[in-house]
Design brief:
605 residues; alpha+beta; 16 helices; 22 strands; disordered C terminus
Length: 605
């Protein structure tokens, strides 16, 4: 039967005790992690968010009533214990409190527990679906509590730093107008405006620019954002940004304050001295060398452009790509892997096809000096030798090559590079390699829409020296845009914004947005721009990604208290769910029947 804690007051958390407390009487409260009855002596591991302390119950100390309670305790019972801190006879070096224990004098069972659906333990192997269904239990696990405590610390350090830098924390609306930002909006029907909808913000982008128009100079917010898109390890339908905007600045000013912010966060939360300035890499170099605009620089294996080497060779796949506009032939040198089994090479070919490749030509430079080339019959020995030389091939190396449109070649080799780097143990997971990727293209061509679209958003400022090419060669115009990357993951990104009317109008024209369409989509921002807008720029971090990388968690679901699963469902509370028809009627919404094919299995005898 559960007891009251009236008259008791916790004096400290479990793992806050140490040898300095020996001889003191303390009151600790928490959950039973483990109970061990040794006959005449009961040991209880008591757990709270700080860690574990061992309680020892002996009838001579606590009396028969309290000893009987200790015998009855089971995992996840909530317990209060009053006792004296003593030195532990058998020291446990793996426990923060391993040198002491609490010899209990009195105890209360504050709450009993049914047998949990899984063991509350570090690094649980329990299936994620079950953990998410019982998330409140999952969050009791020590590793999960460390993740969320680190998250809290990171946010606090960010807020402290930004306040000292003169940033004002200002909230922006959650219910707003639907504007095109690259992903589907989550829509909220309006009861008082039948047929009209709010949208949940994909980012505070337009509002933070309005704040600059309002003269607030430096804005910061820990902002909730929502995007209805396909999920993966580092995506959620609702996520958190550490968002900022600054007036009267250019690229270097934004990078400077953010490098100092990252330096502060790494020192205060991880104890790591981050050297600044951080390295910068142009977008085109990142793509050409790593096949990615978020390169993982913890290992080598860079892409090599061999287009010129194979331009006149006899292999049509290479020669055709070398001559076609926007296409190239590139390769990577997988050192020491010439002996890779055919079955594994075939698996790499299948993997490459998943990224758009039609095949994966390769050369194996065997240790005995022999060469196995998958396209040898199409090229002369001299042509193959020139290709090997260009890729710096040596005995024992495996050379993998892709020939296609640049975008496909980058995707294929970039993905192969990461896969092989992980499998070969080339990545030092103790490293934190930060990198700025700068000078992104302003526009990218959309095959689907047959027009140029903004790579970031239509308010991104072009680089002044490229702007004269906006009519003759729009795809070559670079943007004042920048991403901050850590270990191959984009932590955040931003840009300098357009504040000149003529540039903004031309930008809308280039992406096929009429004056009327621009007014319809962004009218409230464009209206504000008519009354004096300062030069401004900003950046937004994916807070969940920062915590994931610094904590070593496998996905952002681990560092969000109550996440959705890969199907955007909350298994704990059962969302999304049907609602009362009365609610739909109030919102002027009528349900329609969705036709679904049903299949029945026939029994076979």
């Amino acid at each position: 039967m559960a007891e009251s804690m009236v008259g008791l007051k916790r004096t400290c958390r479990c793992a806050e005790l140490s040898e300095q407390n020996i001889g003191q009487t303390v009151t600790v409260m928490g959950w039973v992690a483990k109970q061990r009855n040794k006959g005449g002596v009961v040991f209880v591991d008591l757990r709270d968010r700080s860690g574990i302390v061992q309680l020892i119950y002996e009838e001579s100390d606590c009396g028969p009533e309290n000893f009987a309670k200790a015998e009855r305790m089971r995992a996840e019972f909530v317990v209060a214990a009053v006792g004296k801190v003593v030195a532990r006879e058998a020291v446990n070096p793996n426990l923060k409190t391993g040198g002491i224990e609490v010899r209990v004098e009195s105890t209360r069972i504050l709450s009993e527990s049914e047998t949990p659906p899984f063991h509350i333990t570090e690094n649980s192997n329990t299936k994620e679906e079950l953990r998410l269904k019982y998330r409140s239990l999952d969050l009791r696990r020590p590793d999960m509590q460390r993740y969320l405590m680190l998250r809290s610390q990171i946010v606090q350090e960010m807020r402290d730093f930004m306040a000292k830098e003169g940033f004002l924390e200002i909230e922006t609306p959650i219910l707003c107008k639907s504007t095109p930002e690259g992903a589907r909006d989550y829509l909220v029907p309006s009861r008082v405006h039948p047929g009209s909808f709010y949208a949940l913000p994909q980012s505070p982008q337009l509002f933070k620019q309005l704040l600059m128009c309002s003269g607030f100079d430096r804005y910061f917010q820990i902002a909730k954002c929502f995007r209805d898109e396909d999920l993966r390890a580092d995506r959620q339908p609702e996520f958190t940004q550490a968002d900022m905007e600054l007036s009267f600045v250019d690229v270097d000013d934004v990078i400077d304050v953010n490098e100092r912010l990252l330096q502060h966060v790494m020192k205060t939360t991880m104890g790591i001295d981050l050297e600044i300035p951080l390295p910068r890499m142009k977008w085109v170099d990142a793509m050409n060398q790593y096949g990615s605009d978020k390169p993982d620089t913890r290992f080598d294996m860079k892409l090599v452009d061999v287009t010129d080497v194979v331009g006149d060779c006899g292999f049509g796949v290479f020669a055709d790509a070398a001559k076609a506009k926007g296409c190239s032939v590139r390769g990577i040198n997988v050192k020491g892997q010439a002996g890779m089994a055919r079955k594994k090479i075939d698996a790499l070919v299948t993997f490459a096809k998943g990224y758009g490749a039609k095949g994966l030509p390769y050369i194996q430079l065997k240790e005995d000096g022999s060469v196995k080339c998958s396209f040898a019959k199409f090229m002369t020995e001299e042509e193959i030798a020139a290709l090997v030389s260009a890729l710096r091939g040596e005995k024992g190396d495996l050379l993998l090559i892709a020939a296609d449109q640049d975008k496909i070649v980058w995707n294929v080799l970039g993905a192969l590079r990461l896969k092989l780097g992980e499998e070969m143990g080339l990545i030092d997971h103790s490293k934190f390699n930060f990198l700025w990727v700068v000078e992104f293209p302003l526009l990218e061509w959309s095959e689907e829409e047959n027009r140029f679209v903004a790579m970031h958003h239509p308010f991104t400022m072009p680089m002044e020296e490229d702007w004269p090419k906006i009519d003759s060669d729009p795809g070559s115009v670079r943007a004042k845009a920048y991403d901050i990357v850590l270990n191959g993951v984009e932590l955040g990104g931003g840009s300098v914004r357009i504040h000149q009317n003529d540039i903004q109008e031309k930008m809308f024209e280039v992406i096929g947005l009429t004056h009327e369409e621009a007014e319809e989509k962004f009218g409230f921002l464009l209206t504000a721009f008519k009354y004096g807008v300062p030069p401004h720029a900003g950046l937004a971090y994916g807070l969940d990604r920062i915590v994931m990388l610094l904590s070593g968690a496998d996905s952002i679901r681990e560092v969000i208290a109550f996440p959705k699963n890969k199907d955007a469902a909350d298994l704990m509370c059962g969302a999304p769910d049907v609602v009362d028809p009365v609610q739909l009627e109030e919102l002027h919404i009528r349900e329609t029947q969705v036709d679904q094919e049903t299949h029945s299995d026939e029994e076979t005898q």
